[in-house]
């Protein structure tokens, strides 16, 4: 095992000056974004928790808020370390300041999980548009929970190589003559991180983006129609419930996502 807590060397980056300029800007802004994200996701989590597991959409949004919140909370040690180092470089830490890396990689697990949930919500919207009458029977709460569990396992498996490439040891620090907890990484951790960066920061995000774009572009408006409104997934679910119960909308010209693949038609209010 080798210690990776050494500072950057000048030859580590080609654009060293530009890197540290951007570095100092990002970590100042990151603190504000982090605080706003924690507060907003805490509110979202409270709201969706009170709603409960009413339908598959609410379940997915609840897990999305929870995943975002965990990702941000686990990022706090990293943001704090870099912010303090940026403004007070001579600050004396009572522990190895690079211990934040352990929290950082777990925050990336939930970051990926949130990305996967967003793609899943896009697929749900596409399915609601394409097959509105089958939506609630296909996307049940149990199936949604299973899909979310699989997505969490996928996000975790993508980070397992780097999670097992480091460990913590207790060692004597000569400067203070005391025992400290140090972060140590495996000899091949640099190569592992390089490969994972290609996969997790390039391949996976682009695949998620392509799937999301494909879902959006697959929703085509029937020719000759004008969109009066665009239903959300929750609206689509309510529309399906009204259809099953025999309650139809008043007479109006409809050309919305709930009528995907059909011509615009006049819907008469049915008699009970």
UniProtKB/TrEMBL annotation:
InterPro entries: GPCR_Rhodpsn_7TM. GO terms for biological process: neuropeptide signaling pathway. The chain crosses the membrane at residues 25-47, 59-83, 103-124, 145-169. It comes from the Eukaryota. The keyword Transmembrane applies. Gene3D superfamilies: Rhodopsin 7-helix transmembrane proteins (1.20.1070.10). GO terms for cellular component: plasma membrane. It is found in: Cell membrane. The keyword Membrane applies. PROSITE patterns: G_PROTEIN_RECEP_F1_2 (PS50262). Its main location: membrane. Keywords: Cell membrane, G-protein coupled receptor, Membrane, Receptor, Transducer, Transmembrane, Transmembrane helix. It is a multi-pass membrane protein. GO terms for molecular function: G protein-coupled peptide receptor activity. Residues 40-164 form the G-protein coupled receptors family 1 profile domain. This is Chemosensory receptor C. The lineage of its organism: Eukaryota, Metazoa, Spiralia, Lophotrochozoa, Mollusca.
